[in-house]
């Protein structure tokens, strides 16, 4: 078992620890206590931030690069994905890796990573999450940084569909002048039905209302509507009343094939369907049939059950050639703003995990956080990733029994559990002993001590 992924005070001997503790003193900051008094909050750091090695691949956004450099980490960046053998060599020595869509972190690659503690996915998730968790490696992404970009695309599509702009545009590119107004509409006063009122659905609701649309939504949970939108009781009810139906649900067992022939038949004659959620939500043959028969007035589809892995002439679908049908290559969230926001959000999660042990938002890992440690000398934070088996907490309690545990929290996810404990009034020798005993427990995956 690796005793520690990201360097911690525990790796150091006592005199170094004392020196390092003195060095971090200026990084404390004032924080207003809940009762008005000001408390000195200790900014936790691993033993020496300059020892932390970060590998950022595939042109990860500059916002992330500069945030990580500002921490004093050693940051190595690459504009492209690395060939697997090069990646295996590079990943061996790093504590954190950031990837976008082209790098696959398979078991083979992760097995080579001797010090890796955390992974940032700045685009789609291409990590063997289970293997990563078993090695005590937390994986973070940023699923909601592009909500606004998707919502804006959908607004554009509502207008484009309503004016048949996709067809007019392709006719013009073929030299065909076809000036029509039949079945072209303003969107003002039309009804938008949103399926899934989460980050994207609710954002879209506000934008659509500001353009004069009436907004209704269906969600599996009762939600506070924004603006004057209203929740309806069933999907069928929403389908029957809407001029535009737009899908914003996650991919789950319940949402797979959610929109098929039955649901499309429920939709109004001449209405429009938009899917920028997941490709498996809509049954494509049924949609193609509804479009070709003229039952639907058009559709915009950004996501597909099978999507090409690379750019090029690889796209095939029954929707190709359907009337008034906008097809886009999964670009709903692909904007410069979203990339920049993702860079900020993912890098903050990585920094918090490295410096503070916080795993909130991790996709493969128990989510644990503790309120800030007070700026007291000799306070430490123990971060213990371990196997989720009976008896572990008793063993840890016995190790910590003689110390002052200010606060602790533990959570589990599948076979992995994670405990964070803040301990005060400990000498460097005691810290070394705590680290030694905890990291030698048979259930240890990774032990870190932060100060
Ligand atoms: N096209 C793109 O590029 C792009 C970009 C970002 C997100 N997405 C996709 O958009 C979808 C929505 O994303 P989000 O961030 O708004 O998610 P979210 O988790 O914030 O919201 C999803 C909502 O759907 C609801 N829901 C779940 N199951 C449902 C069901 N069976 N019926 C009705 N409602 C249901 C949930 O209660 C929740 O309110 C996801 O599938 C996501 O993968 C696509």
Give a quick account of the main beta sheet: strands, pairing sense, barrel closure.
7 strands, parallel
- Assign a percent range to the helix content: 25-40%
Bound molecules: nicotinamide-adenine-dinucleotide
Low-confidence stretches: 9-39
Instruction: Give the strand order, joined by hyphens, for the main sheet.
Output: 10-9-8-11-12-13-14
What separation lies between the terminal Cα atoms?
23 Å
Overall pLDDT score: 90
Oligomeric composition of the shown chains? single chain
Shape: elongated
CATH topology of the largest domain: Rossmann fold
In summary, what is this structure?
It is an enzyme of class 1 (oxidoreductase). Helices cover 31% and strands 20% of the residues.
Describe the structure.
- This protein is of the alpha/beta class.
- It has 2 domains: 242 residues, NAD(P)-binding Rossmann-like Domain (Rossmann fold, 3-Layer(aba) Sandwich); 181 residues, Rossmann fold, CATH 3.40.50.
- 31% of the residues lie in helices and 20% in strands.
- It has 14 helices and 18 strands.
- The strands form 4 sheets. It has a 7-stranded parallel β-sheet with strand order 10-9-8-11-12-13-14, sandwiched between helices. The protein has a 5-stranded parallel β-sheet with strand order 4-3-5-6-7.
- Helix 5 links the parallel strand 6 and strand 7.
- It is elongated.
- The two termini are 23 Å apart.
- Bound molecules: nicotinamide-adenine-dinucleotide.
- Nicotinamide-adenine-dinucleotide binds next to helix 6 and helix 8.
- One of its GO terms (biological process) is L-serine biosynthetic process.
